[in-house]
């Protein structure tokens, strides 16, 4: 029997597709293997702009390869840096930001996202997020440090002013895993 609910990645893409339009400016704050970057580049089209940032050069290279393969590189700017430094590279406001937290699939599992840099990046992203824009955090907890990062992010997002932000936590409760979960933050005003 097929699951009637969307998995974390599909649900994050559903939320992005509901928010992002052609011509928007977006950020993939953890470029990884480029799948979210590719999806965002398709959504913004050639008149939009995709920023993709990753601390690992391998991730930037993987993303570049995927974007070039699908002729989506013209609307993209790839950055090899910590996502906590996003304000050094992005000046315009953003319609959407996605973080796919954990480690690079197929890469070094010792290099992981950490709550300190993710919170810094989240603070900076919230400042430049457009009204009705969205930030999505896909959180993986099946590695060392993953549960701590999730707990810090849940506390942070729960404490956001409900008059300014709507916050959603989407997760499966009875799946083997642990399965990834989503924290989505929509800017109200």
TrEMBL record:
CDD domains hit by this protein: AdoMet_MTases
Molecular function terms from GO: methyltransferase activity
SUPFAM superfamilies: S-adenosyl-L-methionine-dependent methyltransferases (SSF53335)
Database matches in Pfam families: rRNA_methylase (PF06962)
UniProt keyword annotations, A-Z: Methyltransferase, Transferase
Swiss-Prot/TrEMBL GO biological process terms: methylation
Protein name in the entry: Putative rRNA methylase
Biological source species: Halanaerobium congolense
